[in-house]
Amino acid sequence: MRCAQRVRLQKNYTTARAVLDAAQAQYQQRVGICPKSEFEMLRDELVRLSDELEHARAALGAHIGEHCCMVQSSTVGPD
User: What pTM does this model have?
Assistant: First the structure.
């Protein structure tokens, strides 16, 4: 039986990872060609998204640790 809360937390983690990956790709494409103000905005966004990913990872890890509900078939989890 799957734990609905773990599935939700895992989805949050996966989404946060994908959003950060996309932002990092955009950042890398714009470095060296964008104005300083855009560079600073992109950098700040990366910091914010990194924090969100860490929060999602910590929430998923804590839930798995507290409830021991990790499903063997799952391949996504905290770093």
Answer: 0.77
